[in-house]
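Dock zinc ion; give full complex structure.
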Amino acid sequence: MASGTALIYDEEMTTHKLLWSDPICDIEVPERLSSSYEQLRSYHLVERCVPVPAREGSEEEILLVHSLEHLEVAKSTQTMNEEELKRVSKNYDAFFFHPSTYRCARLAVGAALQLVDAVMAGKVHNGMALVRPPGHHSQRNAANGFCLFNNVAIAAEYAKLKYGLQRILIVDWDVHHGQGTQYIFEEDPSVLYFSWHRYEHQEFWPSLRESDYDAVGLGKGKGFNVNLPWNKVGMGNSDYLAAFFHVLLPMAFEFDPELVIVSSGYDSGIGDPEGQMNATPEVFAHLTHFLMQLANGKLCVILEGGYHLKSLGESVCMTVKTLLGDPVPQITGEMAPCLSAVESIQNVRAAHKPYWKWLAYEDTSFLQNLSTKSHLLKKANSNPSTEDESQITNNNNTVKVERFLELHMKNILLPMPPIKTAATGSEVSEHFFPEHVQLVKEMDKTEIKALVSGFYADLVKEETLLSLGSMFVILDKILKKEVCNGIAASPTAALSAAVALRHSVRFGLQRKMLVINICEKEQSRKTSCKHYISLNWKEDAEGNDFFSAVLGFILPVAYSYQPNLTVIAVGPNRSLGISGISLLVALLRGLAESRIFAVIEDTEISLMQSIAKALVGASTPPFGIYVPPTQEKVNKIKALRDQFQQEWKMLQCSVKDGI
Ligand code: X5A
Ligand code: ZN
């Protein structure tokens, strides 16, 4: 099986540069590439990646997307003098030619194709290509917005042709609309194109009517073009996450792509002069992490924009670190999308209602016993460092942004070790778990006795406690931060989870826990505790509620809550299958810095292996056919949703029932 992350960088792509003065184009500088690479080096990420060389894209490959005329014009600029270059450049909206531009653009195309080849041939799992010039504004017959050839579009056509792919997802998180990519694929149902972009009711460049949410595609491609326009600046982490939960991800899982390509512009990040947005670098870790759960992990990230060098570099690092499988950093700031974002989300959902089944996913019937109190949450939320940071991010001021990135990223990027997962290995062979799982010995009876010393007597009898040896030893390692996450077999999963909770509060520092019960029985009432929220997946839930439940409810609530430990209890006789549980675990790695404690009652080998794989960040098995919930269920539960979204703001995806 493929493993590893490809990194493509070629210094030659820094030779393309602006030779005259042009206040529009002067932000697209060579340092965007070199300083991002330096940043990757300084975090020791370069050495962890598989280096893949760039190559020139062939003329034939460029012609997959572009006209011969466009290719010939581009080619002809190689021998031009400055005056001629200036004259040709003027023919386009926001583009500059340098004598090396054609060569660089061919390298950028080739780099994208090399990445597709490395991923599709199974040489690596995923990867990133640092390229210049960018591509997503470039059209069949025109350069535009710093882009000459559409690297990502060519990569998608190439993947279709060479590997016979029938479904490719392009996620364009650059802050500008990739109108070039939209034009190229708008009639093509085999490429699902998603773009969010600063729009401001058509005020913002490229100021096109067709960048709005109602451009859903044409002909056979109807429903496969998704535009999420941002009508205000200052969008932040919660707005981006809400867009993923309520628009992109449900669609993407229904589409079930064979390959995901990211038009990866970081001008949507904090500090960028073009975007004027507020999203911090670690949001890109989350976005990347979500996309890694699609297409069996086949993810190609290709650089587009990003003009604040520091912000760009940190965000690139966050992306690559996540591709490598490192724990996902905790997201900062208030977890509530703004009104304007919710409006945009509602509009794009409405525009796509005819084309996607997922729009009916409001079902929460399987979830009961959402036990929490707001005032306790607020208290738990007020950790001084996050408060400082959100204040800084709310204040869009250049000096503060610089300082913020300086302090904040030091905390986030450096101390996080690669994922370590613990499991007990008494009864299994050494090849049972994926290679990064660390096997530990169970605690012996006297140790457990010393540890618990009658403290849990109200919960369980001592004999039962003694059977929880593997549970205790794994939990202990997580609480001591010796490992990031772990899996323990237990004869009584729900009870173990309850004891684990109590233990974490008493002996650990965990004060905000998210508990997910996938058990027949609910956990004991006596365990109720102000330091957690608990979501129960009821036994009569049907498998086809999975995505509605996870994307429409569990993740938004979990991200609103921001736990520092996730406990997932998996009992026997559950309705949720192995692939569902594994995907849920994989998605939950986005919370609590990937700190997850999984207690499994059913010790079926394939279940244990699959969950362990999800914990270490290996790709999860395909989920299978998407079946949406029935309309009946949807209606029944709407009221429940309305009630919850006052408190759990990330649930908001429409204005009328949300605010
Ligand atoms: C790739 C990219 C932006 C062009 C802005 C022109 N292009 N005003 O971010
Ligand atoms: Zn851009």
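Observed: Residues 361-366, 368-396, 523-528 have pLDDT under 50 and may be disordered.
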